[in-house]
């Protein structure tokens, strides 16, 4: 079987992108998978040219992309993403090379497994299974006829309720599309480790997993980072 350098590079970029992007979607990673694919494959091509093909090198480069650029800060999701990348990389690489060896001398047919993986992962992005895996849910908040889309993390320690309703804490900047239209703010006391403070709140309808519930939205003055901009009470789901 003859494999040309340009096809080899294209195959690696597409396959690595499928692996990194899928794992990033599953575990809500950071950074730009495509740019990391280009970088690690330039490194790999240089290694192949000077040293020769080593089947361990691609996995080390994928792991490096996760560790140094794409992994979330949360420890559970970090290890989950790293394990997913290595497992997917091995499975996809084995399947693609098998197809390349049996069916196609040019190597282009080996791209199909990567494309299928991307398609399936994108379609499953909002599924409840991936949400449960990562603990992150896409939600929408609607108040006074205006809606904003958010990415929320299920905070198991968030048991706060105000007036009998579960509380959603949201980054103030993320609420900017609807805040100008809110005219019924109220304040509520909140006890934290550092003491007692007051939260600026308003009522809104939250939709997640196809279900809608009326909740209290607490406007967080401090930014909420690491791939999400809202914290939701587990009871809401």
Name the descriptors.
six-stranded mixed β-barrel, 2 domains, alpha+beta, 26% strand, Cathepsin D, subunit A, domain 1, elongated, 6 helices, 237 residues
Task: Outline the structure in words.
This protein has 237 residues and is α+β, with helices and mostly antiparallel strands. The protein has two domains: 5-126; 135-236, Beta Barrel (Cathepsin D, subunit A, domain 1), CATH 2.40.70.10. Helix content is 44%, strand content 26%. The chain is built from six helices and eight strands; from the N terminus they run ααααααββββββββ. It has helices spanning 5-27, 33-50, 57-70, 75-103, 111-123, 128-134, and strands at residues 136-143, 146-155, 161-162, 165-171, 186-192, 195-208, 211-220, 230-233. It has a six-stranded mixed beta barrel. A hairpin with a 2-residue loop joins strand 6 and strand 7. Helix 1 packs antiparallel against helix 4 and helix 3 runs antiparallel to helix 4 (75-103). The protein starts with a helix and ends with a strand. The mean pLDDT is 79.
